[in-house]
Amino acid sequence: MKLKLLFILTLSYTFAIGQISGIVKDSISNKVIPYVNIWVEGEEIGTSSDEAGQFFFSKMDTAKMLIFSAIGYESKRISMDADLDIVLLKPQPIELKQAVVHSSKKHLELVIAQFEKSKSQNGFACSNKPWMIARFFPYQEEYARTPFLKSAKTLTNSSIKNAKFNIRLYAVDEKGAPGKFLYDKNIIVFPKKRKRKTEIDLSKYNIAFPKEGFFIAVEWLIIESNKSESTLIDKRKGHKKRTKVFSYEPSFGTVSSNNYENAWSKSKGRTWTQLIIHPYPIEKNKYLLPAMELVLTN
């Protein structure tokens, strides 16, 4: 059965008057910064820097503010009218908690939030706007015997071979939303083509499950190598219109939940908000969460 993708194709009527391009660099080392999230503030428009730190998108007819966001750096707001040939981001020190590893004679693992691929009939997709979705994992006392994050799995569906996406790990802030980073680098994941469970190795980061719980977020990369083209056909009587639409791979499968409190999203350069979406077809008192499972170990 086809995955029902949940996303909005935003039609932009803003007149483009040229192209903006530039490169994002570290203000101290002068090294390029790949996969920077770039939003037009308050708009459904944005992009990402590529592997070489370069970014491109159409300039708008009004002076808008751009927001540059990257793991390990302070976010930066710059006017679209400013010189964007080189954008410098200031490194932001992240206090990472040191995990204490104890030797154990017996290797233990615990799988939580396990899901079945065949039961996921809805999915989150990305059209022409950068956005992130996150799932909160609360701490349970039973995790004390297996306190470390070994791996995570999410359900991906890609129509292209070389798609990639970013994983962000967040602590919980005072409002219960994604807050400070738990890890200060990009975790780039390369899903295989078609619908499948994609595994992310977290064991090398030595991260203990925070007792306040934590968030796993997936971030679409708005780069040319992730771009996919399809054609929409208007089948109404008397219409033969075909419209080309673009999306960015991959899409992410979902699971149903009795509440929406653990699903969050971020777009338009704004703060995180709870993601309240019902399954399709509508299931009463059911909400969609990103399909994610964790493996914990000692």
Layout of strands and helices, then pairs:
Elements: E1 4-6, E2 19-26, E3 37-40, E4 46-48, E5 54-58, E6 65-69, E7 76-79, E8 86-89, E9 109-112, E10 122-126, E11 131-137, E12 148-158, E13 165-172, E14 178-181, E15 187-189, E16 194-201, E17 214-220, E18 227-233, E19 242-257, E20 263-267, E21 273-274, E22 287-290, E23 292-297
Contiguous helical run count: 0
How much beta, percentage-wise? 35-45%
What is the arithmetic mean of pLDDT? 84
Class from secondary-structure proportions: mainly beta
Rg, alpha carbons: 20 Å
Low-confidence stretches: 7-16
The amount of helix comes to under 10%
What's the domain count?
2
Describe, in plain words, how this protein is organized in 3D.
There is one protein chain. Strands 1, 9, 10, 12, 16, 18, 19, 22 and 23 form a nine-stranded mixed sheet that branches. Strands 11, 13, 14, 15, 17, 20 and 21 form a seven-stranded antiparallel sheet that branches. This protein has a four-stranded antiparallel sheet with strand order 4-3-6-7, with no helix packed on it. It has strands at residues 4-6, 19-26, 37-40, 46-48, 54-58, 65-69, 76-79, 86-89, 109-112, 122-126, 131-137, 148-158, 165-172, 178-181, 187-189, 194-201, 214-220, 227-233, 242-257, 263-267, 273-274, 287-290, 292-297. The chain has two domains: 8-89, Immunoglobulin-like (Sandwich), CATH 2.60.40; 109-297. The protein is globular and about 60 Å long. The chain has 298 residues and is mainly beta. It contains no helices and 23 strands.
